[in-house]
Structures are given as structure tokens and as C-alpha cells.
Amino acid sequence: MGQTLQIRDKIFSDKENKKYQERTGMKEVGTRVYRQELKFLCEERQLRVIEDRIRHICRPDAHGGNKGIYTVRSLYFDTYDDKCYQENLAGVDRRKKYRIRAYNEDTDRLRLECKSSCHGRKSKEGCPVDRELCRKLAAGQGRWGVFPEGRLEQGREVPGAVGLLERFLLERRLELLEPRVVVEYDRTPYVYPVGNVRITFDRSIRTSHQVFAFPEKSRVRRLILPEGVNVLEVKYDEVLPGAVRELLTAGQELRRTSFSKYALCRQYGFR
Questions:
Q1: Helix, strand or coil for residue 109?
Q2: Strand, coil or helix: what is 94?
Q3: 236 membership: H or E segment, kind and range
């Protein structure tokens, strides 16, 4: 079997990179690996059939722990004019969004992530973030004073590469990024080693606009899909192995969608 190809691209487009340099004097460096991503809306009965099948060829992801399931809670950021949300609705080819994630009830292990889309492929980069900084960001505090000591102090140039946290904090100030919505769901993950395939079943997708409570669980949460409707996601490098494709589609009428949890959760805020 030939070696799987990986699509690599710059973290920012040339235009974005030039604008970033003009503002800060810094160069964005490095590459990012983009992966294919398929999403399907499924009824619970369909998910159970598919899950029973893939257990024969896939193994549970270690992140699922003993129960094989974990809760994902994400705080998403957007600009003052909702650029990320509008680009998502319009299907803009190159786009990105920032979020902070917590898993289960562990608020001491938080990750800042930047998820990017390019030519229909997705990529993600992340780094740890401490709870104190997370709470300040969730409360919309310290736009000018939350920078880690010795990093990007008051926007001054820093020699060398720009890390994810520094880039986010700087863009937060320049682009007026604000916490917008909390997205939460229960995820059951599986992996298939060939093609670096990851299959996830996301159930009980819910939202809250109590962003100030993050990373703690919000008191007011709302389901965003009809009861019994869930999301199946399949991520892989370049080609989806035939064995996985057959198990996913055999006897099933799956509805492929460009479903965005963030965009749908934001829509509730405009009603």
C-alpha cells in the first residue's frame, strides 16, 4: 500500500500573512496538515446500527476512557461583526475560528484551539491554556492586560515565531474577538489505523449563551437538534478506506451535511 499523502498549506493565506506582518512586524511560520471531514445527521437507531458494525474493525479511542464516551464543552470566539459566523453561513473557502475546550468536568486541562478550513479540508492546532486566563477571556476581561509575562507586551514585536496563544491574544485585540457561545455534546470516538481514520458519534448537542460561566457547566442549556437526531463525523487523511466506507453506507440512507455546531448554536442567539 502506498504512503498516504497529506495536504499541507500555510497557516494563513498569503494575503492574511501580509496583513498580519504589516500590523505586527511578525511572520507566521510553519505548516498545518489538512484532513478530510465528512458529517452526517443520523437518527439514534442509525447510529446504533453503524456503531455495532464498526466495532468489528475499529477500536475505541483511548480518550473515551473506561466508558468509551466523554463530554466536550467549547467556548467559541467571534469578531464584533460575527465574521466567523457569517463566513460559515456563506461557505467561505478559507476560514478559521478560535475556541477553548474542556473535557468532561476537568476544568484544569483546557485547550485553546484554532480550527481552519481550506478547500473543504479541515485542520486543527492547539495548546494548553490555564484556567485563570480562560476565565478572564470568558468574561471578556483584560483585552490589554492578559498577555503572559514577557510575551507580546502591549503589542510590541517579539523576535521569532508566533505561538498559537500569542497569535490568538493579539488577534483578540486587533479583530475585537469576543466570547460568543458555549457548545456542548457527548462524544463516542473510534479509530481505524489505516488512513488515520477517526469516527465520532456526537449526541445531545446543546448550547448556552452563558459564556461567563465557562469552563464550568452552564446552568441554562438548550438542545439544538430534534430529539433522537445526532451527528456522525468521519475524519481521515486522504482516502477513506473501503472497509470503513462500506460499513458506514451499507443499508443506510445517511444525510451528508455541512453541519456546523457553532453556526447552529449561534442561530439560537438571533431568535
A1: strand
A2: coil
A3: strand 229-236
CATH number of the CATH domain containing 227? 2.40.320.10
- The stretches in the chain having pLDDT less than 70 are 1-32, 142-162, 251-252, 269-271
List, in order, residues 6 or more apart from 266 with CB less than 8 Å away.
78, 82, 85, 180, 181
- Classify residue 85: in a domain, yes or no: yes
Rounded distance, CA 93 to CA 171, Å?
20
In 3-state terms, what secondary structure has residue 59?
strand
Q: pLDDT digit string (tens) for 189-218?
A: 999 988 889 999 999 999 998 999 898 887
Number of domains in the chain: 1
**Residue 163 DSSP code:** P
What tens digit of pLDDT does each residue of 122-171 get? Answer: 888 899 998 888 999 998 876 655 555 444 433 343 333 358 898 999 89
In a domain, 244, yes or no: no
Distance, in Å, from the CA atom of 206 to the CA atom of 182, rounded to the nearest integer, reads 8
Q: Residue 102 falls within a domain, yes or no? A: yes
User: What does the CA dihedral 26, 30, 35, 37 come to, rounded to 10 degrees?
Assistant: -20
Give Cα 116 to chain centroid, integer Å.
8
Instruction: Report whether 100 contacts 126 (CB < 8 A).
Output: no
In a domain, 264, yes or no: no
Domain range enclosing 186: 7-239
